[in-house]
Specification:
The protein has 141 residues and is α+β, with helices and mostly antiparallel strands. Helix content is 30%, strand content 33%. It is built from two helices and eight strands; from the N terminus they run H-H-E-E-E-E-E-E-E-E. The chain is elongated.
Length: 141
């Protein structure tokens, strides 16, 4: 076994400067490309992700809603079941549109259009027509 290790060491430390330089440049190039790909992924996720994604607890009632990355609001119902309501998050204008006109009503959040504001772990939804506010705190996981 020592002979194999010495053989590998001999191959790497051989006095051929050109081969060592080529191997070193290849390693640096591959690792640089991997680092750049990872950085692009995280930057894209940061700027294109849904800022409302996660579980939120209503400050007033203590009810929980979960906003998924697939533009769905999931809320628990009696009996351990969940109800899903389609929503749309416009990050440019900071508007959350919940459900359609024919969507089922909820005690937590009604179908409609809301301006949203996220400060640290607090989500404030302001109903656009009447100005009513709903405040949610991000649930820690």
């Amino acid at each position: 076994m020592k002979a194999e290790i010495k053989g590998v060491d001999f191959m790497i430390y051989e006095n051929n400067e050109e081969k060592r330089s080529t191997i070193w440049r290849t390693i640096l190039t591959v690792s640089s490309v991997v680092i750049i790909i990872i950085a692009i992924f995280f930057i894209a996720k940061l700027f294109t992700g849904n800022p409302l994604e996660g579980s939120w607890v209503s400050e007033g009632s203590g009810d929980v809603i979960e906003i998924s990355d697939e533009n769905m609001i999931i809320r628990p119902e009696e009996g351990g079941q969940t109800a899903e309501v389609k929503c749309d998050v416009d990050t440019k204008t900071k508007i959350l549109t919940v459900g359609d006109v024919g969507s089922a009503d909820s005690d937590i959040i009604q179908p409609g259009t809301y301006d949203y504001n996220v400060e640290q772990d607090t989500l404030t939804l302001t109903e656009r027509e009447y100005g009513d506010q709903l405040v949610f705190i991000r649930e820690q996981e």
